[in-house]
Amino acid sequence: MRNLCLFLLMVTYHLNAANVVTNQAAALIDTNQMPAIEQSQHAMASVISKKSGLSLKSVLNKGLSYDDFSSAIMRSYFQQPPIEYNSNKMWFSVVVDEEKLKSMMLAQRIPVWPDRRGELFVWIVEEHENQDLINTAPNSETFYWLQQWFEQKGIPASFYNYQNDDLLDFQPRDVRYLNPDLIDFVEENYDAAVSLFVFVKHSGNGYSYRYGLSRPGKSLEIKNLKFVSLAAGMEALATDIQAKMSDGQQVFADEFNKSTVSVKVNNIENADQILSLITYFDNHALIDKYHINQLSNGQVAVMMDINVLPDTFVKFVSREQVINHLPLDLGHSIIFSMSE
Question: Is 88 in the same domain as 191?
């Protein structure tokens, strides 16, 4: 049994989540119109938004004192968007001490969105003024702004590459009209936790988008928006997605509490389930460390150090649906069953 466990621990298994760097983010600012102190406030608010899952607007509306958070800043710098996009704004980035920022956020009752986050699969198509409908290329302005905003808002995203990915049975029109067959295919064949299909239309006086967001077990969510600036339109889209992906994933100040729990997982039927379970534990944002004590008769027994209350841990794990909680707990002993 010991050799089996050692073998399992050496195997890598892919899970549809990614670690996000949350100690740095950037604000898009007009350096000619915004005073230096306000630039710093917006940049710090961007980091707090990225780390909390709250929208940038809601963070700014809290009226937080910049002086209270400035001591967490380690360095800052400017970056210019590509010149060909004719942007009169600059990215102002700050890098902070992550633990110090987290402590300050919790003191202000601002939640924390754990760094381990579900991945987003994105497919964008565009219709230009000549009515050509095409897949968005990585060197396009639309791609640039959406990718940048996802990064600043802490959303791990992988974009469909029409030159490399094997989705030749589907065309840009399938994205535009949100073809259910395409959505089902992506959900079944890609590892992303959530799928996003975006149609951007260029017109003489601006732009519009329609997106469809597909999440397992939920109805397709559709939204339309008209806008003048691609940068602003893609930020609005990314803000929507940030709210949806962080919903129910945030940990609040009174939920943080280091605990040691005994976890048992029943209904283990094969080695693949063990691999999945080990990788799930390895990558879980709320687990500090764990030790497998026993594997026998279809049950895994684990001692686990977690950084939140047991009830909070159960709430997160139940939502992720890798294992199902069985309400038979005794104190700090938590019982789960493998999901089918």
Answer: no
